[in-house]
Amino acid sequence: MATSASASLSKTIKQQYMELPQGDKVQAMYIWVDGTGEGLRCKTRTLDFEPKSIEDLPEWNFDGSSTYQAEGSNSDMYLIPAAMFRDPFRKDPNKLILCEVQKYNLLKITCTKLIFLYLEDPTLKTNLRITCNKVMEMVRDQHPWFGMEQEYTILGTDGHPFGWPSNGFPGPQGPYYCGVGADKAYGRDIVEAHYRACLYAGVNICGTNAEVMPAQWEFQVGPCEGIDMGDHLWVARFILHRVCEDFGVVASFDPKPIPGNWNGAGCHTNFSTKEMREDGGLKAIEESIEKLGKRHEYHIRAYDPKGGLDNARRLTGRHETSNIHEFSAGVANRGASIRIPRSVGQEKRGYFEDRRPSANCDPYGVTEALIRTCLLSEEGEEPTDY
Amino acid sequence: MATVSSSSLLNKAVRQQYMNLPQGGKCQVTYIWVDGTGEGLRNKTRTLDSEPTSIDEIPEWNFDGSSTYQSEGSNSDMYLIPVRMFRDPFTLDPNKLVLCEVLKYNRLPAETNYRHSCNRVMQQVKEHYLWFGMEQEYTLLGTDGHPFSWPSNGFPAPQGPYYCSVGANHAYGRDVVECHYKACLYAGVQICGTNAEVMPSQWEFQVGPCEGIEMGDHLWVARFLLHRVCEDFGIIATLDPKPITGNWNGAGCHTNVSTQQMREEEGLQYIEKAISKLSKTHKQHIAVYDPHGGKDNMRRLTGLHETSSINDFSAGVANRGASIRIPRQVGKDKRGYFEDRRPAANCDPYAVTMAIAQTCFLDPTEEESKKEESA
């Protein structure tokens, strides 16, 4: 059986416990990105009150040596609450809290520690939220909106795509995209449960569809302004993993889970500013695309957690991808790096779609790169240190 | 499924029909106690004519100690003395769970009744407002004794991705954790958090802050709830400190400690004083930090897998390889608490908290003269 042992535990029993009243206690589950830049971790604490805003939540800490983030001899790391959502698993009044990770607490240093600070950067390679937030603040008045299309593949616990024959392959791609029927759509329960859980939680999920490869699906989050895009997408991913865990299957964001004539998985990123959304905005769209055309390598490095190595397996120029080595743009062109939707081309305003980010990208990294190149007009291989 | 119990496969909808029956004014009270192994928990239930509003209304009881490794058959009656009451999350209000101390036929504490002497010590150090928080680690096993959800004739991928994880390929048995958390909250047990641990199928919950004798009371009841929840699901929770040998983490019961002085401004000096005293009594503490005089911990405290070596005492800020860890925040704030990482998962919390209270806050010469007085 390709589902986990945990999924076979009695859910009737579970329901009985989950319905127990909890007095005035509230469970707050703190969530963070681990040292791989892709993995999510979580732990829970009891609060004596229901937090009404992020400011109500205490900072916390964890053992970074167990998450690829620190050595055992010096392993305490801090969790700084950044965004709060309702908990669709434990339900109200319980919360999910997305957190930033810091090596030590910037707010509580004394003068003698300042010298130490200059030598060691408290931010982590995998906490991309800090610089993303800084850059988003700089362009606040342009109201940058994002929508990200998260593709993913459902696998059994044996690592094989869910619903595929155990020692083989389904019929070739063609009938599966937006398909219906047990021979076309594998694992819709997960999609439906995830959609509802996101709506409950307050995640800005705006749609779902079955994808081209069987057992592959997509959900879209947005429009989100600024830092919200990364926050909402990371929590949507957490909710997906948690829903899959309940069903006993695994969600994979690997950008090319099955080599050969099977689609990869991306995270197409739609982008617009106030100017682009207004009359004549197409001009601003074209200016941005021109800037992006001059900085292709920098973006490729930012668009997956391995500096482009993951995308090298996916961006082949086939299966509706552009080639990783070349930058291209076009109206309604799914083989290009940037696609301008046909309606945008006609109305001469709207948004554009960057099709390069991989499914396992860090949304903070992706949205930050777009702001730096398009709105802050940066050039060259390295981001500017403001 | 081969590794869950037959009981868990019985029809729960049928069970629910019966559990929904009203019970008039009667109240079911389940008495819980620690048996002769010092690790096992026992329980039996009686009907009372009305809901008890406090522990004083719950009568003493007795049981057959020869069936719990606690007495000989020829003189087997032992006493159950109610000490703390909780709501019952299994049969629900108005029913109760009652933690009990065990006395022998002559009204002296049973051998594994460490609560009695712990309570005496906690009374003596009352003015310190001594708080504890204990981090209970445990491993879920199938009824075949193999860790739950591990491949039946093998091992999962090495440790790394499991701590605080999410996903069916990383987190094994979360239902148990979720249900246990809710059960504790309902019962009134002071559960303050949970997380997935480094070894797959291993989890942790934390109980506290509890003052004095409450620490042992709340932790023992939390353990009872854990075993009972697992029983419902048909799997097993083990508190063995090293369930799988080799490159797999053991299970501990890290004990966090503070007094009012330590929690106040410049409290760090009192923390350092306490650690200094602990450094001189390492062997005595190791002897009471598991139910087998240190033998269980020998399998766990190797110096690897975030443990200190059983032979040496060490302390350090943010150092998970030391016997005592001072959290980084405490080092900065210069006040707070410290963490004793030595107790094994199957320790008796009364024995642990008593040893810490005695070593750190009781003058040994005072203790000696008290012992002489009572002899």
Q: How would you concisely characterize the structure shown here?
A:
Chain A: Residues 24-106 form the GS beta-grasp domain. The complex is a heterodimer of chains A (386) and B (375). With 386 residues, chain A is an alpha+beta fold.
- CATH architecture label name of the largest domain in chain A: 2-Layer Sandwich
- Residue-averaged pLDDT of chain B: 94
What is the C-level CATH assignment of the largest domain in chain B? Alpha Beta
Using DSSP, what is the number of strands of chain B?
13
Number of domains of chain A: 2
Shape of chain A: globular
Total helical elements of chain A: 11
What is the strand content of chain A? Answer: 15-25%
What is Rg of chain B?
21 Å
CATH class of the largest domain in chain A: Alpha Beta
User: Which H/E pattern describes the elements of chain A?
Assistant: HEEEEEHHEHEEHEEHHHHEEHEH
**Which overall shape of chain B is indicated by the principal axes computed on the Cα atoms?**
globular
Question: Would you spell out the secondary-structure blueprint of this structure?
Answer:
The complex is a heterodimer of chains A (386) and B (375).
Chain A: H1 11-18, E1 26-33, E2 40-47, E3 60-63, E4 76-86, E5 95-102, H2 114-119, H3 129-138, E6 145-155, H4 188-201, E7 205-210, E8 216-225, H5 228-247, E9 250-252, E10 267-272, H6 274-277, H7 282-293, H8 296-302, H9 309-314, E11 329-331, E12 338-340, H10 342-347, E13 352-354, H11 363-375
Parallel strand pairs in A: 1-5, 11-12
Antiparallel strand pairs in A: 1-2, 3-4, 4-5, 6-8, 6-9, 6-10, 7-8, 10-13, 12-13
Helix pairs in contact in A: 3-11, 4-5, 7-11
Chain B: H1 12-19, E1 27-34, E2 41-48, E3 61-64, E4 77-87, E5 96-103, H2 115-124, E6 131-141, H3 174-187, E7 191-196, E8 202-211, H4 214-233, E9 236-238, E10 253-258, H5 260-263, H6 268-279, H7 282-288, H8 295-300, E11 315-317, E12 324-326, H9 328-333, E13 338-340, H10 349-361, H11 364-374
Helix pairs in contact in B: 2-10, 3-4, 6-10
Cofactor (chain A): Mn(2+); Mg(2+)
Domain GS beta-grasp (chain A): 24-106
Main location (chain A): cytoplasm
